[in-house]
Every structure is written in structure tokens, then in C-alpha cells.
């Protein structure tokens, strides 16, 4: 019987059977109460998983690459791949693409109808199909099948399970059991008399005692280790009809029946949970936290933990129909295989609320909780209010032209009124459920862009406009909008943030930050803390300080002093919209690139100057459940902390909620494991699972993946090819790499993966291979070619030698026939040739001497200015091309003229020669020491950072100071002043010398005999 037929079995009918069923439900409820109480007590100190409503749910169907929408089974292999069993083959998923293996694949299956998947203790994937075939995926990527014996049923293998002896048990549809021994032998156990194996259900389990538990449509059966069959039913408290087993990771055997769950405790069957109105339970899962998940025939999914059962019904995201399989992957996500596609429930730190939850618009600008605990959301579609069931109800506001206004800001007055600022429709004042007043231009309100509303302690409502602040004395019953106070220094442009902190009004604008205090305006000097902030987006008082959110990070104002925490101090973004401290000591910062979470204490320490950078700043994005990483600034409030401790944020795709108390459940993710998926050489596939010797030349293309299923399209990659390059090369999100024309040799390709802003995998994926030389690169061919060339050269030599001897004999005859004057002429020619050679040798020696003189200082023997300029140009080219560090030091002997005037120029020359010898002896071999002229020397330090250059210069300085008796004159001390600079990428030779010279002159101006870094 197929699983579809089994699902269509009719339920027990008749009043008597319904009464028995309800009695069973009541008994199970009573039995489960102690367990629920104990679980709740045990888990009271740990944060719970969120409600199923708060899980992010992703879905895939045939439109996304699945070959079939019914997924019978799901498995994950140790390498991280997910595998799905369908009626059209087995599917491998890497987070981005589905790879289908079927009868038409290169690694073909024997049948497309895959019945079950099983990952054995060695990490090998087993599959079964509808024709009784059982196969295993080998390390080389090939499917190895168990060869069937004649009596082996050609029927669907419902399920597989391996016992402690390594024997694989198989459950055939309507044909009993099979067993594959570790040595490959097969055993078939036909259905025994009285045991309803022919009506089996596609679930079996083998427990730690070797007992094989099998579900059937007529109760539970078990084959013990001794080979004895047992049948269980009403005598053990089980209901009539379908009962099937599930083996949990802790080796507990659970039993599922209609409306109830049981647990095997030794030799007893114990009632565990009642699931009224659940219908048929079709699949189960115990997750890593001990929660029990169940899938049903047509009632959706339930999670059972210490708080009871939480249901995710069908019809919203889940389809109506059978939940066939459940799996928790290595990252804690729950995968659901249904008759209508593949689904993934992902626990996220943030929960998004959008138009599907009742919001008028997903573009949210402001969130506010009033004194009654009601949450208000301002968005592009107007104003919404959260109701008791968590959904949002729209609050109508009259807008221009009959359209709902776009809400930019919210505030609550001291009397409890709600003030609503809009983009182009003025300000609304609400009391209770009704509109109290609508302020427009007719009331004195400047037109457009009410991005901020602030309320001070005296009840004054301040409204930020495009032309500064206006105010309404709401407590005094004033009915109109008052113009800005006549106070010098108030901002006159667009106001982007307002905050009433006590009696003071903090004002943020495109002109910076200021405070209206006691009838005076104090301008906050943000420039004093650096960063160059211009636009202010929010204020937050924390203890005795006010934190200011700007387009250049956070500024803290305390006791009249301003300090900054920005990009340079470890914040991952520049612009921050709002800071919200939670009750766990964390600060949450909204921005356009996500939500930054940092310890509040660390912010204080960095602002105090006691820490140079933030030790931990975590950026949360869509991967953490945010509807959008883009928060909305220049509106208020963009983020709040509610009384229940939850954090709410406005984003460009909805409003987001996070519970900081659940952070312990949401620790930093492990880096995704990297895998190599395919290798092609010149378009032809290569079996990369074994070491290969590839023919030389051609193009090698390698595809790889990082096996994470949490926004896998944003995983970063890097590669390096050992044997060619020892450095990692960042590939961004690129999932392949190509090598063309690799030289012969041995190579290992390493691939690493990381989440955005996360750590790299500790163990990269590796593929080792070698490249064979082309035929002309082979040593034997090269040796043969060398022998042929040598043979040819030898033959040519012999031929030319014979010709020479013949010619020589002719010349000898001619010489004897020549007269004595010809002999004398020959001697003169030889003498002239000798003289010419001697002259050429003298000219060469003279040219070499001129060359040395052109690049060598005559007095000291050091390279001169010309040689120095050539090397400096070369090193600057290396800096621009490869980013190598470079430092330049200029030094000048102090009071050298006094030495010449006191002791004579010959003594001065001797001092210069000795100085050159000392400097050359203490300089490194890789450095260039040159005399630029007079008493000025230059030291060029390639591949050297400024700190290292200063150490070299300090050593030279110390050597000079220790030496006495220069030029043989007792008591004569010689010192020098030195300026050293590090090369910048934009430096030219002239600019680098100019900066070094400036540093040298600062050293002289500060008293000489010292070093100065520029």
C-alpha cells in the first residue's frame, strides 16, 4: 500500500468508538500534566524558543528547482548537504541550487521513486526506491547498490534503520522486512502469520536493545533481538488503528497515534501527550533543545515543550495536506517535507510584522508604546495600532485629497494624548480612539516634513519642521501653533530629531545638535570630538549622559564634555539612527545596514578613552530575521524598548521585534563548512574526490559552496592554490574559480567560507592534484632535444674544423709563396691589433670608473644623490603596484660647519668618512644609505613600517652618541638630527623628500641631536 493510500484510510466511526477516543484523550491529558510541570520547572531558567508564529518560514517548490512537490524524507550528511527523497529522484541542496539525481543523471539511480533516506554512523547516505533497490553514496560520488536475491520483493522500501551491529533493516510496503548485513549479505523476513506487516506504515525504528519497532495500520509490532514478534494494542493502552514509532536522538522510542503520543520506557508503554483534534500524526522530530515536533495529515505542525503545544496550522504558509518528513539541520533550522513542497522554519532573533499582519504599509518610519502599553506604528500608509492578538488595526487619519497621510513621527504628551507628525499633512492630536485636533498651515504650522516631536516636562509639545521648531502649550490648553522662541542660536533649517529630557529640549538638525535650556540655546560642539558629524538623528539619555546619534556614529555628552564612538572605534557603520539600551546591558543601534548590538559598558569605556576600539560589535541583518536591514532615520522614534523588555524597530520592509532575553539561544553562528562541488577541465568533468594528474595546459574550473542555509547567497569565499600562491584571495560571493595554463607541478586548492562579518571556516575544503607537463615539457623529451642539439653542434664543429684545416693548409702554401715584406706586414697588423685591444681595455676600465663616479660619492664611497634618486623611483613604483611599506630617513650632522671652522676641512672630511662607515655598518643589508651632499645623508628603508624604521634610526643614533674621538681628535663628539617618514600611496619622490626634510628641520628646531617622525 502506498503512503497516499495509507493516508486515505478512514477514521474509526460510531459513537462508541468516539467516546473511547475522548476517554483516551482525557487520560493522556492527565498523564501529561506531571511531565509538562516538570519540564516547565526544569526549563524555567533558560530562554524558550519563540512561538511558531515568530519563526521565519521559507518555501521551495518545483518553481524553485525541485523535481517534485512531495518530499517523503529529508537527511543531512556530515559534510553539510541536505538530501530530499522525492518521486522524481533524490535531491541534493547546497543552499543555492538543487541537484537532482535520477535515472537520467550522470551518476544514475536505478529508479526515480525514492522511498527513504538514512545516514549511517559512518556518515554514508543510504537510499531506497519503489522497486526494492537499496543503494549507498560512496566517497567518490557514485551510487553503489546492494544486489538483490531472487526472493527479494520488488516493492517500495518504506523506511530504513540500522542497528548496533551495523545491519540495515528495511521495511517493504506490503512484503515484510529485509536486512542487509555488514558484509553485504541479504536476508528477507516475510510477513509472519498474525502480524499485520502487509498493512505497514512508512515508519520503523531500531532501539539500543536491538528491537525493531514497526508501525502498521492495525497497531504496533516489534521484533526483538531474539527474533520473536510482539504485537501491541489496547492492552498496553494504545488506541486501535494506526500506531507508528520514532527513535529520538537520545534513543527514546516515541509512538504516534491519532490524537496522542506515547513513549517506550523499558518494557512499558507510557502515555506522554494528548493532541486533541490533531488527526493522524505523520512524522515526528525531537530537536536539540528537547522539544517534540509533530507533523500531521492535514492539521499542520505542532511543537511540544514545557509550555505545551504550539501549532502552526496550514493555510497561511504551509499547504493543506500531509507533512511527510521533519529534520533539524546543523544550524538549528527545522525542515518540513510536505505534499505541497519544501519548507524551512528558521528561528531568528528578530520577528517581522508587515502588511500580512495588518500594517497599512511596509515602509515603517516610527514606533511608540503609550502609557497604556499600546504599540503604535507610523508608516507610509498612515497610523496603525497593535491589537491584543498581535495583529495591527488601522487608525484612520484624514489626509489631503482623501488619502491617508504618511506618518513620520510619534510622541505622547504628558496628558496621554498621541501626537502624530506627517510628511505633508501637518500634525494630528489623538485622545483615546478619537481625533482631538488636526494642526495644519492654517494654524501656523510650517508645511511638510514633521520628522520629530518632543515633549518637555512642562507639557510643551515641540514640533520639528523644515524651518526650525514651533511649539504648542498643550497643558495650558493653547489651541494654536506658536512660532519659534526668540532665542538666538535656534536651528533655522530642517529639524530631524527632538527629545524632551526633563525640562530641556534637545534639538537635532542638519546643522548639528543643540539644547534649549532655561531660555538659552547651548550649541553642542560635536567637532571637538572629531568625525565631522553634520546630521543628528536621535538622542537617548543613559544614566547621566546623553547619547547623540549622527551620520558619523555616536557622540556622548556628559558634564559638558563630548566624546565619540564611530567607525574608527569599531562601529561597523557610519550613520546611526538611534541607541536603545536593553535590560541585559546591551546597546542596540539602528542604521541603514542593519542593527548593531554592542555592550553598553564597552561603549562607555571607549567614550572614556579607556578602550581604543569596541571589543565586540555584532551587525544583525536579514539573516537574523529583520524584514530589511534598512532602518529609517530622520524620523522618530525609529526604535524603542517596550515595558516587556522587547525591542521594536522601524525598517523599510515592516516593523521588527526582538527579545534580548533570547540572545543566549542565538549565539554567534559557526562558519559554514566549505565543500568543492565539481571540477571541469576544458569543459569535461573531473573526479575530484581522488588525486588526479591532469594534462598540462588548458582551463581548470572549480565550483564550490559554503553549506549554510541562512541567506546562503551572501556567504563570502576565499581561495588559495598551494604550489602557486600561499596567500588567500578574496572571492566575495563568487562560487567558482578558474586556472588557465598552470605550469607542471603539485597543487592543493583550498576553499574557505564565512558568513557576512563572520569568521572563516577552521577547516577549508581541499582538492589536491598535479599537472603533468606537455610533451615538450617532459624531462625525457627535453633530454633528447638537448642531445640532438649537442649532436648537431658537434657535427657543425667538426665540419667547420675540417674546413678550417683545409683553409689553413692553403694559407700555409700561400704564406710560403709570399715575400718577406708580406710577413712583416702581417706582424705589423698583429701589433696594431694588440694595441687596439689594449686601448679598448683601457677605455672599458675608464668607462667603469666614470660609471662608479657618476653614482658614488667620492669622499665617502656611499651612493650619491643620482643613485639614490634612481632607487627611490624604483621603490615608489613597488609601493604603488604592490602596497609594500617604505620609509625614508634624512639625517644631518649637527654643527658640521663648526667642525670645519674649528679643526679644518680635512678633519671635517675625515668626520664625514667615519660617519659614513658607522652608518653603513649599523644599517641593514636591505637599506640604501646615500650621501645627498655636504653633511646630509639619506637612508631608504624598503618593506619597513614606521615603527620598525624608528627602531633602526634609534640604533644609529645610539651608536653615534657612544662614539668619542672622531677623526682621531680626543674628546670630539659628533651628533646628528634625523627626520623619518612613511611613504603614502599618493606620495611622489618630491613629496616624500619634502615631508622627510620637514621632519628633519623640526628635529633641528627642537634642539638637534634627536629623531623626529613625520
From TrEMBL:
Q: Which GO terms describe its molecular function?
A: diguanylate cyclase activity
* TM regions (residue ranges): 781-799
Keywords associated with the record:
Coiled coil, Membrane, Nucleotidyltransferase, Signal, Transferase, Transmembrane, Transmembrane helix
Instruction: State the EC number(s).
Output: 2.7.7.65
Q: Which Gene3D superfamilies does this one have?
A: 3.30.70.270, Immunoglobulins (2.60.40.10), YVTN repeat-like/Quinoprotein amine dehydrogenase (2.130.10.10)
Tell me which Pfam families the record gives. GGDEF, Reg_prop, Y_Y_Y
Q: Where is the GGDEF domain?
A: 884-1014
Give the matching InterPro entries. Diguanylate_Cyclase, GGDEF_dom, Ig-like_fold, Nucleotide_cyclase, Reg_prop, Rev_trsase/Diguanyl_cyclase, WD40/YVTN_repeat-like_dom_sf, Y_Y_Y
Signal peptide bounds: 1-37
Coiled coil spans = 822-849
What is the enzyme's class at the highest EC level? transferase
Protein's name according to its UniProt entry: diguanylate cyclase
- Which organism is this entry from? Pseudoxanthomonas kaohsiungensis
Amino acid at each position: 500500500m502506498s503512503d497516499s493510500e495509507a493516508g486515505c484510510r478512514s477514521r474509526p466511526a460510531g459513537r462508541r468508538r468516539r467516546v473511547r477516543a475522548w476517554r483516551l484523550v482525557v487520560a493522556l491529558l492527565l498523564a501529561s500534566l506531571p511531565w509538562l510541570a516538570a519540564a516547565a520547572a526544569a526549563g524555567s531558567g533558560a530562554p524558550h524558543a519563540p512561538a511558531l508564529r515568530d519563526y521565519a518560514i521559507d518555501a521551495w517548490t518545483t518553481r524553485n528547482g525541485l523535481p517534485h512537490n512531495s518530499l517523503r524524507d529529508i537527511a543531512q550528511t556530515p559534510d553539510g548537504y541536505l538530501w530530499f527523497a522525492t518521486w522524481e529522484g533524490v535531491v541534493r541542496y547546497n543552499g543555492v541550487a538543487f541537484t537532482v539525481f535520477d535515472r537520467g543523471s550522470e551518476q544514475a539511480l536505478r529508479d526515480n521513486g525514492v522511498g527513504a533516506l538514512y545516514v549511517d554512523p559512518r556518515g554514508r547516505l543510504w537510499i531506497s526506491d519503489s522497486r526494492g533497490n537499496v543503494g549507498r553514496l560512496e566517497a567518490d560520488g557514485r551510487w553503489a547498490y546492494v544486489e538483490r536475491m531472487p526472493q527479494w520483493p520488488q516493492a517500495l522500501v518504506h523506511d530504513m534503520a540500522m542497528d548496533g551491529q551495523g545491519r540495515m533493516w528495511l521495511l517493504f510496503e506490503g512484503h515484510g522486512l529485509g536486512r542487509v548485513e555488514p558484509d553485504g549479505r541479504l536476508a528477507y523476513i516475510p510477513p509472519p502469520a498474525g502480524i499485520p506487516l502487509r498493512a505497514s506504515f512508512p515508519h520503523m525504528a531500531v532501539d539500543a536493545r536491538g528491537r525493531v519497532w514497526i508501525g502498521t495500520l492495525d497497531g504496533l509490532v516489534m521484533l526483538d533481538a531474539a527474533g520473536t514478534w510482539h504485537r501491541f494494542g489496547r492492552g498496553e493502552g494504545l488506541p486501535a488503528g494506526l500506531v507508528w514509532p520514532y527513535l529520538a536522538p537520545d534513543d527514546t522510542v516515541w509512538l504516534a497515534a491519532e490524537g496522542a503520543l506515547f513513549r517506550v520506557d523499558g518494557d512499558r508503554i507510557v502515555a506522554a501527550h494528548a493532541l486533541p483534534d490533531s488527526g493522524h500524526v505523520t512524522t515526528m522530530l525531537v530537536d536539540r533543545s528537547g522539544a517534540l515536533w509533530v507533523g500531521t495529515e492535514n492539521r499542520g505542525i505542532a511543537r511540544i515543550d514545557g509550555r505545551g503545544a504550539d501549532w502552526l496550522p496550514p493555510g497561511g504558509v504551509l499547504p493543506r495536506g500531509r507533512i511527510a518528513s521533519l529534520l533539524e539541520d546543523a544550524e538549528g533550522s527545522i525542515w518540513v517535507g510536505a505534499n505541497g513542497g519544501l519548507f524551512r522554519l528558521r528561528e531568528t532573533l528578530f520577528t517581522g510584522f508587515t502588511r500580512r499582519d495588518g500594517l497599512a504599509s511596509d515602509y515603517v518610519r516610527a514606533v511608540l508604546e503609550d502609557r497604556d502599553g499600546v504599540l503604535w506604528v507610523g508608516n507610509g500608509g498612515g497610523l496603525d495600532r497593535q491589537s491584543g492578538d498581535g495583529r495591527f488595526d488601522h487608525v484612520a487619519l484624514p489626509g489631503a485629497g482623501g488619502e491617508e497621510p504618511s506618518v513620520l513621527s510619534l510622541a505622547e504628551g504628558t496628558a496621554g494624548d498621541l501626537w502624530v507628525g506627517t510628511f505633508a499633512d501637518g500634525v494630528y492630536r489623538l485622545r483615546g480612539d478619537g481625533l482631538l485636533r488636526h494642526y495644519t498651515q492654517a494654524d501656523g504650522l510650517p508645511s511638510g516634513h514633521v520628522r520629530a516631536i518632543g515633549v518637555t516636562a512642562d507639557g510643551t509639545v515641540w514640533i520639528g519642521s523644515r524651518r526650525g521648531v514651533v511649539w504648542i502649550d498643550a497643558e495650558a490648553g493653547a489651541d494654536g501653533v506658536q512660532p519659534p522662541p526668540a532665542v538666538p542660536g535656534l536651528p533655522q533649517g530642517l529639524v530631524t530629531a527632538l527629545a524632551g529630557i526633563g525640562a530641556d529640549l534637545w534639538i537635532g538638525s542638519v546643522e548639528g545638535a543643540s539644547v534649549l535650556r532655561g531660555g538659552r540655546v547651548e550649541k553642542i560642539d560635536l567637532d571637538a570630538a572629531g568625525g565631522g558629524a553634520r546630521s543628528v538623528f536621535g538622542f537617548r539619555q543613559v544614566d547621566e549622559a546623553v547619547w547623540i546619534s549622527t551620520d558619523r556614529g555616536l557622540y556622548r555628552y556628559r558634564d559638558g564634555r563630548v566624546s565619540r564612538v564611530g567607525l574608527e572605534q569599531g562601529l561597523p557603520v557610519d550613520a546611526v539612527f538611534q541607541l536603545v539600551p536593553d535590560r541585559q546591558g546591551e546597546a542596540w543601534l539602528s542604521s541603514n545596514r542593519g542593527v548593531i548590538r554592542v555592550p553598553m559598558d564597552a561603549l562607555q569605556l571607549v567614550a572614556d578613552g579607556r578602550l581604543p576600539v569596541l571589543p565586540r560589535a555584532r551587525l544583525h541583518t536579514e539573516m537574523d530575521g529583520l524584514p530589511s536591514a534598512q532602518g529609517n532615520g530622520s524620523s522618530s522614534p525609529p526604535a524603542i524598548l517596550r515595558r516587556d523588555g522587547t525591542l521594536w524597530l522601524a525598517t523599510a520592509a515592516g516593523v521588527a521585534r526582538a527579545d534580548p532575553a533570547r540572545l543566549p539561544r542565538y549565539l554567534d553562528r559557526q562558519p559554514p563548512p566549505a565543500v568543492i562541488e565539481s571540477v571541469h577541465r576544458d569543459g569535461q568533468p573531473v573526479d575530484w574526490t581522488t588525486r588526479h594528474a591532469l594534462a598540462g595546459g588548458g582551463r581548470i574550473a572549480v565550483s564550490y559552496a559554503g553549506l549554510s542555509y541562512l541567506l546562503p547567497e551572501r556567504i563570502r569565499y576565499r581561495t588559495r592554490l598551494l604550489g602557486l600562491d600561499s596567500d588567500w584571495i578574496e572571492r566575495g560571493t563568487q562560487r567558482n574559480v578558474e586556472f588557465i595554463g598552470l605550469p607542471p607541478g603539485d597543487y592543493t586548492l583550498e576553499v574557505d567560507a564565512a558568513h557576512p562579518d563572520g569568521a572563516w571556516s577552521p577547516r577549508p575544503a581541499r582538492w589536491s592534484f598535479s599537472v603533468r607537463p606537455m610533451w615538450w615539457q617532459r624531462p625525457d623529451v627535453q633530454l633528447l632535444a638537448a642531445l640532438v642539439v649537442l649532436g648537431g653542434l658537434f657535427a657543425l664543429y667538426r665540419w667547420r674544423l675540417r674546413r678550417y684545416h683545409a683553409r689553413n693548409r692553403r694559407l700555409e702554401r700561400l704564406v710560403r709563396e709570399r715575400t718577406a715584406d708580406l710577413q712583416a706586414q702581417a706582424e705589423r697588423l698583429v701589433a696594431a691589433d694588440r694595441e687596439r685591444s689594449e686601448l679598448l681595455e683601457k677605455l672599458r676600465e675608464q668607462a667603469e670608473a666614470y660609471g662608479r663616479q657618476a653614482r658614488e660619492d667620492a669622499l665617502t664611497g656611499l651612493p650619491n644623490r643620482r643613485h639614490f634618486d634612481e632607487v627611490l623611483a624604483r621603490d615608489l613604483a613597488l609601493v604603488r603596484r604592490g602596497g609594500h611599506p617604505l620609509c625614508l630617513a634624512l639625517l644631518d650632522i649637527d654643527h658640521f660647519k663648526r667642525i670645519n671652522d674649528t679643526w679644518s676641512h680635512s678633519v671635517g672630511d675625515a668626520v664625514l668618512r667615519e660617519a659614513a662607515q658607522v652608518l653603513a655598518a649599523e644599517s641593514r643589508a636591505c637599506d640604501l644609505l646615500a650621501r645627498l651632499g655636504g653633511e646630509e645623508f639619506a637612508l631608504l628603508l624598503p618593506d619597513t613600517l614606521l615603527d620598525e624604521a624608528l627602531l633602526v634610526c634609534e640604533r644609529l643614533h645610539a651608536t653615534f652618541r657612544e662614539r668619542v674621538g672622531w677623526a682621531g681628535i680626543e674628546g670630539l663628539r659628533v651628533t646628528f638630527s634625523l627626520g623619518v617618514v612613511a611613504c603614502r600611496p599618493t606620495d611622489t619622490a618630491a613629496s616624500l623628500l619634502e615631508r622627510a626634510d620637514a621632519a628633519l628641520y623640526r628635529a633641528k628646531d627642537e634642539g638637534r641631536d634627536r629623531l623626529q617622525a613625520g
